[in-house]
Amino acid sequence: MATYSNPQEESLDPKDWNAFRKLGYQMIDDMTNLLETIDEKPVWEPLSNEIHEKFQQPLPTESSSEEEVYQEFVENILPYPMGNIHPRFWAWVIGTGTPMGAAAEFLAAAMNPNVGGGDHVANLVEKQVLDWCKAMFHYPMESSGLLVSGGSMANFVGLTVARNTMAGYDIRNEGIHPDHRLTMYASQEVHSSVHKAVEILGMGRQSLRLIPTNSAYEIDLNALQKAIAEDRSNGCQPICVIGNAGTVNTGAFDNFNALADIASREKMWFHVDGAFGSMVALTQDYKFLVDGMERADSLAFDLHKWLYMPIEIGATLVRNDDQHYNAFTYTPTYLTHGTRGLSSGERWFADYGLQLSRGFRALKAWMSFKNYGTRKYGRIIQQNIEQIHYLAAQVEASPELELMAPVPSNIACFRFVVDGVPEAALDDLNREIIYELHEQGIAIPSYAILNDRYAIRVANTNHRSRYEDFDILLEAVKRIGHRLAQRSLSNQ
Ligand SMILES: *Cc1c(COP(=O)(O)O)cnc(C)c1O
Questions:
Q1: How far apart are the first and last CA of the chain?
Q2: What average pLDDT does range 466-486 have in this prediction?
Q3: What is the DSSP string of 159-225?
Q4: Is the pLDDT of residue 197 over 80?
Q5: Whole-number Å distance between alpha carbons of 481 and 440
Q6: In contact, 240 and 271? CB cutoff 8 Å
Q7: What is the mean pLDDT of the chain?
Q8: Centre of ligand 1 from the C-alpha of residue 302, in Å
Q9: What are the residues facing 183 on neighbouring strands?
């Protein structure tokens, strides 16, 4: 039988598979060398104008070989990592990644399944990872879950279920009733992603009631109860209490048992933002910080922060599977779930969130959990906390350094102070210290504003950090600080 063949037919696969194989080996060599020697490089360096110009090229209309494209990557991209793979990176809350995690990203992309649903193995891998997360947090095994891009999306998913379940009417159909205010409650330290979620949920940012904290930056429980009662008497409908497992400024943990009691008494949803702090559940000595977190109706967390997996991966767990499903499922005819074949499966992951096409991010989690195991994870998370306690002790022992907040977990905030430099000048001086630390490639802390004062903030979700890295940081802070203080004193 004659078949038609068109000599012009083409695909995007390499012309020479063996050459591609060789290039792939080269990539593995280069990436392994990068990670193996990362501590010998500056943490960060500013990008030159020349590099900026490399990224102002016109849209490529013609092909280049795989080798040519990779060569450009090696010259213009690879030498300039953000810094978070380096042992002295402690800014914001950003994980370090791992070699195995990076390899898994490649494997997942090569298999390239769409994990929106259907009967294929990637769905089993994701279910397995979610079950492991439930076990890790002592969360009910019958709860539902979803892997998402990170903590922001995880909070959005959890708060959507909260809103839809607690509104008391069909909010998916009717939308927000304009004359009826639904309110949610969190401490002033709550992360910006929660503000954004409340906005996007159409409730208006003022519906997120920001409750003051105590001196340890934990939610003030009396103030919370008062706010709920006041809102009720003003005709609002309080629907959700949000607890923080690890606040972003100082690493504080709210009292989850107390919050769960209040939520249950008030018939409200209890959501926990556990972006990074939830992971202390794996430690021996600090798991008490998350006592009661397992009582949450929904729990949001990241795997790319304190489980060190490559960005992006986070997750939401929801205690009641049906409530989660009912908040998101929408099945047009072209997505009808079959009873046999690839389209089978009663509930698909796409029924539990916003995304329909979903990547195979579960693979890096599955491989990481297997590669490291929760005991090793727990030891390294505890090591990160103890390193920060060491840093805090060094700060307290140094006359020119001042600790700015309690240090309950893996974040320390401090500043450089010397006699003679007025309070008002200290903010600028400490900001300048951070800029110099960055620009000299010594270390990357970030900053926090605490009681209107500028602090140097060190947040440790870095499995590569060693005690000596914190010594290097403090030595540089003092050296730079004294030099700047000298200059500002001689200018007075
Ligand atoms: C990082 C963070 C988030 C947001 O998570 P992303 O992964 O950055 O989207 C939310 N809450 C807290 C406390 C965080 O630290």
A1: 95
A2: 97
A3: HHHHHHHHSSS-HHHH---TT--EEEEEETT--HHHHHHHHHTTS-GGGEEEE-B-TTS-B-HHHHH
A4: yes
A5: 14
A6: yes
A7: 97
A8: 7
A9: 238
Q: Tens digit of pLDDT for each residue in 385-425?
A: 999 999 999 999 999 999 999 999 999 999 999 988 888 89
Model pLDDT, residue 489: 79
When pLDDT is averaged across residues 421-443 and rounded to a whole number, the result is 95
Could you give the CA distance from residue 123 to residue 443 in angstroms, rounded to a whole number?
40
| pLDDT tens digits along 128-179 | 999 999 999 999 999 999 999 999 999 999 999 999 999 999 999 999 998 8
- Which token pair is 51? 């590099």
Q: What angle do CA 211, 237, 159 make, to 5 degrees?
A: 70
Quick one: what percent of the chain has pLDDT higher than 90? Answer: 95
- The pair phi, psi for residue 100, each rounded to 5°, is -65, -40
Pocket of ligand 1 (CB under 6 A): 93, 150-152, 191, 193, 246, 248, 273, 275-276, 302, 314
CA–centroid distance, 151 to ligand 1, in Å, is 4
CA 217 to chain centre: 20
Task: Output DSSP code: residue 57.
Answer: P
Q: Give the residue, by CA position, lying nearest to ligand 1 atom 14.
A: 275
Helix (H) or strand (E) segment spanning residue 462: none
Going by their DSSP bridges, the two strands 237-244 and 182-187 should be labelled as: parallel
| pLDDT over 70 percentage in the chain | 99
pLDDT score at 488: 80
> Do residues 115 and 123 make contact, with C-beta atoms less than 8 angstroms apart?
yes
Token representation of residue 249: 């400024």
Mean pLDDT of 216-237: 98
Q: Ligand 1: which of 90, 156, 159, 191 to mutate, most ligand atoms within 8 Å of CB?
A: 191
Across-strand partners of 317? 145, 299
Asked if 437 and 444 count as a contact pair (C-beta separation under 8 A), the reply is: yes
pLDDT of residue 492: 64
- CB of 451 within 8 A of CB of 67? no
At 403 the pLDDT is 98
Q: How many residues does the chain have?
A: 492
Q: Are 141 and 307 in contact (CB under 8 A)?
A: no
